[in-house]
Amino acid sequence: MLFAYINFRGASETGKIGNMVTIAKVVILAIFIGLGMELMLSKGDWQASFSPFMANGWGGVFKAMGLTFIAFQGFEVISQSSEEIKNPRKNIPRAVFLSLAIVIPIYLLVAVVALGSVKSGDMTAWDYLAQQKETALVGVARNFFSGGGVMILVGGLISTMSALNATIYSSSRVAFAMGRDRNFPTFFSKVHPKNFTPHWGILVSLAIIVLIAVSLPIEDVASAADIMFLLLFLQVNIAMIRLRKKRPDLKRGFVTPLYPWLSIVGILMLLFLALYMFNYSITAWIVTGIWVCIGLSVYKGYASHREVEHIRKTKALERIEKKNYSILVCLSNPKTVRSLTKIAIAIAKKHNAEIILLNVIEVQEGQQLLARLNETANARPILDEAESLVAEAEIEARSIIKVSHRISLGIVDTTIEENCNFIVLGRQKSPTFFDRVFSSFIDTVLQKSPSEVAVLHGEFPGEGIRNILIPFGANIHTRLAAEIAPALAEYFNAKLRIVVVFEQDVPQYRRDEKIKQIKEIIQENSLSASLEIIVAKDVLAGIVRISKDADMVLMGGRTGDFLDLLLAKSLTQEITERVKCPVLWVKEYEERESFWASLLKPPEKGA
User: Fold this and answer.
1) What whole-number percentage of the chain has pLDDT above 90?
2) At residue 274, what are phi and psi to the nearest 5 degrees?
């Protein structure tokens, strides 16, 4: 628990403690090697301690190799901490080779000194040390000086502390990376707001370490750990070969010599040692098998589809970041065709984007999709009208008619198939209870797609849009509104007005902070807009009052979760229903929290 807390405090603290522990351990081992070498060489027959050599043959050597392989786990930690290393392409290979050059001689010297200096009586040196088990080095060190046994015992405790520190550090970082890649639940990818450490990964790693330590004999725990590390390094070699073939374009800080033959030899040797460990501990292989089966089950049943979805989202978000838009316009109501299409045209003109016009025909559950295929002709007038508007604007566009068991499913499938990252759709301005239930399902599914979304409430007036009002809210959705506002203003030849309404009890420093934030957003997006600041008793009433002269309200906000739409109204909803002009909601893509997390989350205050 102490080292879990140290890891929780931060990588710097973990490194400092690790340095202190390592220096102390190296000093103790240096004393042990020095005194042991002197004692060994003072014996006239020290060579007898190594005769007969390899008394148990190659089988004993292979068992020893398998059991001691965990000693190389520390080199894996170096690569696992790559995200927290400066210049990793240069420093990681250097750290690995320096560690090997320092540690392997120490391992060998400790083994030679222990065998060569031990007083074993009539027994062979290795039999005597094997009989002593984990206290063998303590017994050897007692022969050096009166406190030698205590010294090496302290060294053993320090080594254990070092291993615990490194294990918690590396396992928590692996859990963090897997959570970020959606192989684990997303809470593993969260970092502490103050210490910037993966606190959930550290906590779970601690729980697993304690559970394994108290539930199995130490020899079986060590054997199982060795087997899993052998299999892990085996997979590293396989992954390296595949990556070199699949991604030869990547810049690499280290070129593997004798590629791929050195890796193939490593794979065969690691597999051989792992299988040979079956002769030492059947329990260890059973534990390893159970652990691997659990991992495969989790990946197959939970992680595999989430990983694919996350990769798809990442690629789409990269396109959003570059403003490389592909716009999907969802058309179903003839009254809103012109309005929705014009919004898409405005954004497409500004960002040189493609427009995809979509009409989804819904088929009842239990019916075959072919049952309503003949109704596609009914969608043509809607799509024809939209196509003519797009053609007049000289923008590239395609039309798709999709038959699906759910409208929401048809939209999401098309978004994925066509790599769309901006969706335009419409909704009634004042939805009924049943409209809220129905449309909330659409929004819940849309939030799973990696897209920015624009939802138009109402329809544009016949005389056009001349005045666009943007109520300011301090969230990422408002930033999206500011980003697309120039496109709408340019297309409709409209004036932009940004308004912020402060309640009377808001202190002056809070007002100054928000005004500063607004001016930064205006500057970032090169907005030619007037800024109006209003102080009123009620934010909603103030925005409704100033919107009387607007032809459209453009605002950032969620399109409505199930609980929000069904049980309550947000400030964004209230504004939408109260203002007279059409309202365009824009929503930046956000990682959606779970249903249960939304239930436990305290209600937000409208402001």
Assistant:
1) 8
2) -60, -45
